[in-house]
Structure formats: C-alpha cells, structure tokens
From TrEMBL:
InterPro entries: CBD-like_Golvesin-Xly, FAD/NAD-bd_sf, HdrA-like. The keyword Transmembrane helix does not apply. This is tRNA uridine 5-carboxymethylaminomethyl modification enzyme GidA. It comes from Crateriforma conspicua. Gene3D superfamilies: FAD/NAD(P)-binding domain, Galactose-binding domain-like.
Amino acid sequence: MRLPTLSAVCFLLLATGTAPAADLFVEAESFQDRGGWKLDTQFIQEMGSPYLLAHGLGKPVDDATTTITVPAEGKYRIWVRTKGWVARWGAAPPPGKFKVRIGEDVLETTFGTQGKQWSWHDGGTVQLAKGATSLALMDQTGFDGRCDCLYLTTDLSTDPPAADQVLGPWRRQQLGLPDQPLQKGPYDLVVVGGGYAGMGAALSAARMGCKVALIQDRPVLGGNGSSEVRVWAKGNIRRGKFPRIGEIIDEFADNATKSPGTYEEFGDDLKERIVRAEPNIDLMLNHHAHDVTMKGDKIVAVTALDTRTGAEVVVEGSLFCDCTGHGWIGTWAGADLDMTSEGRMGMSNMWAWDELDQPTEFPETPWALDLNMADFPYPRDHHGQWFWESGFDKDAIGDAEAIRDWNLRAVYGAFNAMKNRDGAEDHPTAILTWVAYIGGPRESRRLMGDVVLTQEDIVSKRDFIDGCVPSTWSIDLHYPKEQYAKKFPDNPFISIAEHNRAVDRNYGYPVPYRCFYSRNINNLFMAGRCISVTHEALGTVRVMKTCGMMGEVVGKAASICAAEDCLPRDVYEDHLDDLVRLMHYPGKARRETPTSDIVVPGDAMTLAGPYGPPSGLDPAKIDGIVADDGDAMLSGKWQQGQGLKGFVGYGYRYAAAGTDATATFKLSVKSSGKYELLVFSSPHKNRSTRTRVTLRNGNFRRDYHVDQSIRHPKNAAVAGTVSLSEGDVVEVVLSTDDADGMVHADAVALRKVD
C-alpha cells in the first residue's frame, strides 16, 4: 500500500518570505486500513478523484485509519474535501457526518455537513509534533458520509485550491507524481471496462493469441453483473447464426435466481480466476482510465490512475476497445457519438432487507425522500428490484453522483416508512441487509460505427451480411411509472418497462459487426451499451450476456487485425470470411499467437443449435430414436410451456381435451428389432389419465393410452412394444380425442429392447 505522500517535506516559503510553511496531503483512498469505509470510484470524472464512502445502512462504520508523517512541529490547519450530500436538495439535517482524529486529538469540526458540491471544509487548527502519528476518519451515522482527501498546512491563512480535475496540477504536485509515468505495453488490444463486454473481448482476443491489457476501475470484474450491483445476466446466448458465440460468457455468467441476487451467486472470484488463467491478459484492477493519447485518427495510449494510490500508468496499444458503458475512450478520442436528449433510461440502485427474530430499530431519516407506504411498490421477496430507477433526462454523465444519491434517498425513505411510519406495525423485525452504492446505469453516450442499428432494422429483421451477435431481449425501454411519479415529478424513482416483443427471443436478431467499431477513430472497437445503435435499438442489445457476446466478436476481430496488420473496418471489407471462420470455433479454442494454428481442447462445449443449448434434457443423450416436440407436425391449438421441469429439449406443448389437436412425430428405424415406444411428459394433476397414442407404420396401426397425470421413470411412459424393420418410417400421433385432461406433447422415442 502506497503511504500518503508529502508535498512539502522540503518546506515552502510563504508569500511574505518571513517564515517557512509545511504541508501534508493525504488521499483518503490511500489509507492503510479503510475499516468499514467503501472505495467509490464511480464519479472520478465528475468530481476529480476516488473517495471513501461510509456506507453503513444507518449504522456507523468502523474507522478508516492510516499513519502520516508530520514534516515539522507546528500549528496546522486541517482541510477536508467533502460535501453535504443532501444539501443540493435543501434537505436537513445532513446525514453523512464524520469526525477526524489526529493522534489522540479529535477535531471539534463535524465534516460532511456543508457544501452542495465537493469543496474544502475547514477543520480548524491543531498543534502537531514532527514525526509519525495516526490519522482516522470516524463515521458518525452510517449514512454515506464521504471524504476525498485531507490537507494539513502551517499556512493558516490561505485556502487550498479547487481539486475537481482528475490529477490536476495541484494534486499532482501534492502526490509527488513523476513527470514520466510508468509505461506498459505495447499490447495488441487494450480493453477499458471489465464488465461482461470487456471480459468477453479480453478473453476472446487472448485465446486467439493477442496480448491484451484489461483495465477495470473496480476491485472486481463483472460490472452490473458483479456482487456490487447484482443485476442478473440476461440475453440468450449460444444460438443464431453462430452458436459458438456466447460460450466464453457461459463460463463465468452468474446463475442468480432473482435480481438482486446474493453476493455468492455472482461469482466475483470465478470471474477473476478465469481472466487470470489467461497468460496473454494483463489484468489491471483498481485502475481508472482518464485520458487518451492520439496520433492522427488513431489512439496510441490510454492513461489510467491507480484508484488506491493516485499513481499513473500509460498503457500503449495497437487497438483499443471501449467497454466503459459511457463511451469515455471514444469521447476523449473525438469519436462520433450520440446521446438521446430526452427520454433516456436511468440508473438503478437495488436493495435487500430481511427479518430477525427480535424487534429492531432504524434511525429516522428526515433528510431522505418523504415517503409513506403508498409512495413506492412494496419490496416483495425482501428486495427492491430493477425498477428502483431514477435520473431520467438528468445529466447521466456530469450529474451521475446526484442520480445515485437520489436513489439512496429513495431507498432510505422507503425503509423509514416501513420502520418508522405507516408500515411500522408490519415490520418490527425488519433490517436493511444490502443497498447497492454502485449504480447500474442503462443509457448515456453511444459511439457511432459504420452501421447505426435501428428499431426498424430489428423488427423487420433486416439481414446484414455481417450480422453476428444474437440479440434476444425484447426492445425494453424504461419510463417513470406514473403511479409513483406524482409526488416527485422532477425526478421519479420508480420505473416501468415497456417491451416491444417483435424480437425473436429464441434465434435472436443478428447485430452487425459494423456496430462494434468507430466510424472515425480507426483503431477503436466498442462493445456493450455504448455501441452504434439508436436509443430504441439499445433497448434490446444492452443486456449483459448480449454485451458479452459483442466482446467475443471484437476479440476475434482484433486477432485478425493483429495477424493481418489491418484495422477494424478492414476486417469487414477484406477479411469477413476470416471472422466468420473464427466465429465457428469453440470459445475455449486457442492459439499462441494471432498467426498460429488453432487448437480445440477436449473440454470444449458441445455445439448448440440455432435455438441455443437445450434448456431441458438433451435429446441427443436419450437412448433410442428420439423426436422432440419441435420436430412434430402440429394441428389444432397447442400452447408452448416450460413451467414443468424435466422436459426434453426446449420445452413442451399442451392442448385441452376434445379440441381435435394432434401432434405427429416421425421416427426412422435404422435396424430391425423389437422396440419400446416411450412417451415423455412431466406429471401434473390437470393432465389426461388416458392420452391416446397411435403408432402407424405403413398399413400397421396400433393405439395405446398413457396416464400423463403421474410420474413415470425419467418422465417416460412405456406405451407398448412393437417389432420394426430397418428402413421403417414410423409415425407416432398424440391426440386430444378421448382425453380427460390436458394432453402433453414433449417427445417420443423408440428404444430397442432386443
């Protein structure tokens, strides 16, 4: 851990020249022990720095402590850069209060009580001896007090300058940063952003032989799909034109049962382990990219700061991929971009609560949103879901911290209503267990490529020659929910989703490769929600597994660029066949360099079909000659279902008794012998107890009846046995005639018994 840096151990002369002055600058994020304070890096571009956040859900967090070296004995004025985080709304009293202890002295000033914006708060003076002493941040409330840095100076009359630029000149001087920062690279591909898109790009490129840097400003990977935000990963994978795309994402995608899920369900350790297992990836966690170096219309380097120490590193590369979500790399590079001016989707901060065996208390929150139980949807299943969303039409870039803070005020106001207002009688034992302080944004800047995908393209199924990533999520756009917007019309905090379900959710719409590179920055790829689409099209491509597949395609394209010494656009214009070939390889395929032979390991995933891997029992693994319901010829009114588990393939069909519905399966016999006829179905009390099953083989016909209301071994009822010859084509017909309940058509099979 880098210790706080002294900016003036050598002493500075005051303007009068009559006395030397000493000063000391301490970044809060560099504290040796953060205690219960959280490192918040979301708003560096907005306010200039990472900072520590006392996110204790209403209970004071443990002190953050460090050791400082006082350069000289004397009286020091203490300045703390902080803010009163609800002051911008005129709310009171300030919730995020904390104290500062230096050595044995606790300063009288309470910090976090003033300032609508980040600014220096004068903490008064203290007499300090030269040498090492302790420094501590002492949270008072657990309600999100925040501290950026501290400045101690014997110049008692001069205020410190503003510090809202990322590593501005004054902060650089105080940190003692070298004129020439550390340089890394060059890499074949520099990926900025470690969510699903960034992980997909880095892993894909590395396995295809590229040297990759993966820069992530958080301590964990996964972005919205990490334990910090806990949005379950959506979007179907391994399907469409290239069913191998998505296999890499399948290796680390979460299996959360709800959103927000639990910490364990998001597998932060698994994500990091998979990335670190790739020798071609240089993983740079806790690094925030904040600038680019250009040469003409190409990026040559990205500059990042270590969010724990402030140290800088310049990362050089041939190709870059913007997976930041907000399009930061493209913005700094001067890429063509767009951002919808009105009607944008917002940011969510989800939350969870639980109940204990004994009554609990929660502090009153007069500074939070003024809510009663009718002002918000009840958090059923003990969690506040994705629709706790605000920031519609607010500045998603320059005012992101305020959007997050408004969400926090909404959550605390809701829980206050549950504990201290009209919900108190029903929630005596309720406790807050988790509130996301890392926001989950949905929409901001989009970087323009050679194709700007539109809703009309998707709905009309426009066929682009380079269509590759299957987007299966509906066109899902969020708006304030009117029922809850009336009390806070300026910034509603509950959303509603409007779904255009014209998207093929099984096969998927193939998003073109030309959406994944910049049209004017020649070596810039993008993957994730900042790709080249319109606001409406963003509604379907923005979910995490789909974003991850974009990254997989970018990684493969980057390897072609490295092998052919070409640029992203050239892959489309001159090497599209090569990209198509790579997209047919398994996700675990690899090569040592971009020009080496590709090796497919023995543990590669089984190739899925155009509609993805079976969500039920794989028909290929069933003994015998099998026909699934997807292969059946249907007549009459059948409905599709997946609710009864244990089905074969992708689901099943069901039809009501007496509706003249039939399902006809055809099976080709390859060898003569005696066969059992199996009828697969999941049991349910509403199923028919005498479903008629007819076997036809030429002029031969036999009727059977099976009870579909009860469980059969492996969900397969033996209807009967029949002798068949090689070359026979057998028809098996399930009918609703004679049924006394729902008829279930899942699969049929002929299993040889001699």
